[in-house]
Amino acid sequence: MKFEVVTRQPEELSRQLMQQLRHGVTVLQAEGMYSETPRSLLICVVNRHQVVRFQEILARFPDTFACVSSVNETWGNFKHVA
Prior knowledge:
Shape: globular
Oligomer: single chain
Strand content: 25-35%
Number of domains: 1
CATH class: Alpha Beta
Strand order of the largest sheet: 2-3-1-4
Distance between the termini: 21 Å
């Protein structure tokens, strides 16, 4: 499952996701077109058994917007997140 999360707190949210779910997080700089304010877009792929835990972590960050989509396959040189 791929989460895309728009947030003003990318460092803290990413830290919690990486520590608790043991998955990497990619951050992109974004801007709200309506609000014209800078935001960060976090991308994180997790297995389906971690979706509820991901949502629990997101609940601690009320000023976030998230969407989730199914991932058919992944490829790449994955590193263990300590």
